[in-house]
Specification:
With about 140 residues, the protein is α/β, with parallel strands linked by helices. The chain has a single domain (about 1-115), classed as NAD(P)-binding Rossmann-like Domain (Rossmann fold, 3-Layer(aba) Sandwich), CATH 3.40.50. The chain has helices spanning about 10-20, 55-60, 75-90, 100-110, 120-130; strands at about 1-5, 25-30, 45-50, 70, 95-100, 115. The protein is globular and about 50 Å long. The two termini are about 20 Å apart. The model has no long low-confidence stretch (mean pLDDT about 95).
Length: about 140
């Protein structure tokens, strides 16, 4: 599978490693080259400096061959914009985006993006712990 990831923060870098370890072709974008320090030394994918909302950068990243585009930056607006560009301009079949704001997350999911809200995931996880239910399993660090 060809995957383009926008954002090489903790989540983007961890996802890139997981996918790379499984043998997928990964290109990860970030506007700051220093972010790529989070990638392991044995990362076989491509690290590209650039903004995932810039169509020329996406073309250089191989968006035309991508099966999935993933947006993991800290900015909801950038994530949504880049995911919509990937999906609607370049025809990427799946666009997955992290959106912190639960109201926006629901709205963009209804518009066809595959969304993930760490705010809601965290709240549900903490709720389970508070009320004494088993919390969902989380893989240990480094996996």
């Amino acid at each position: 599978m060809n995957v383009v990831i926008m954002g090489c923060g903790r989540v983007g870098a961890a996802l890139a490693k997981l996918l790379d370890d499984e043998g997928h072709h990964v290109t990860i974008l970030d506007i700051d080259s220093y972010s790529f320090r989070r990638l392991p030394a044995d990362f076989r994918g491509t690290a590209l400096v650039g903004n995932g909302t810039d169509q020329e950068v996406l073309v250089r990243a191989g968006i035309a061959e991508a099966d999935v585009f993933v947006a993991t930056t800290q900015g909801d607006n950038r994530n949504v914009m880049a995911a919509q560009i990937a999906k609607h301009i370049f025809g990427v079949r799946r666009a997955v985006t992290r959106i912190y704001d639960p109201i926006r997350e629901e709205m963009y999911r209804e518009l066809g993006l595959e969304t993930f809200s760490p705010t809601m995931v965290g709240a549900h996880y903490m709720h389970a712990l508070v009320v004494g239910r088993p919390a969902p399993a989380v893989p240990p660090a480094g996996r």
